[in-house]
């Protein structure tokens, strides 16, 4: 992959199952709540929960529903960016 746009097309193919996308949405929603909590309370120890929920829900979707390997193993930064892009697009009902 040379560009994020190339990766985005691949990412959407890897997230074809709407239930997988919903699991990603739930995990990313929880990540937002945790981050809000951390910044509101300065309880930085709670940051360890971010990858637990962020990746936990996503990996369940990939292994149980899509039957594929999460893109984060090969493209960690682009995968994170795409997760948030998909989350915000889902909020706006664009996906």
Describe what you observe in this structure:
With 95 residues, this protein is mostly helical. The protein has one domain. The protein has 4 helices and no strands. It has helices at residues 4-14, 18-41, 49-66, 76-91. The chain is globular and about 40 Å long. The two termini are 23 Å apart.
Radius of gyration, CA atoms, in whole angstroms? 14 Å
The low-confidence parts are none
Reported for the largest beta sheet, the result is: none
Quote the average pLDDT.
97
Number of discrete domains: 1
| Structure classification | mainly alpha
Q: In percent terms, what proportion of residues is strand?
A: under 5%
Q: Which structural traits does this protein have?
A:
mainly alpha; globular; 4 helices; 95 residues
Draw up the topology in text:
Elements: H1 4-14, H2 18-41, H3 49-66, H4 76-91
Helix pairs in contact: 2-3, 2-4
């Amino acid at each position: 992959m040379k560009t994020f746009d190339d990766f985005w097309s691949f990412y959407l193919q890897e997230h074809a199952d709407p239930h997988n996308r919903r699991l990603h949405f739930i995990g990313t929603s929880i990540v937002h709540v945790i981050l809000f909590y951390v910044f509101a309370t300065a309880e930085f120890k709670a940051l360890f929960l971010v990858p637990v929920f962020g990746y936990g829900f996503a990996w369940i979707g990939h292994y149980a529903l899509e039957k594929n390997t999460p893109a984060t193993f090969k493209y960690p930064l682009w995968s994170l960016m795409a997760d948030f892009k998909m989350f915000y697009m889902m909020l706006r009902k664009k996906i």
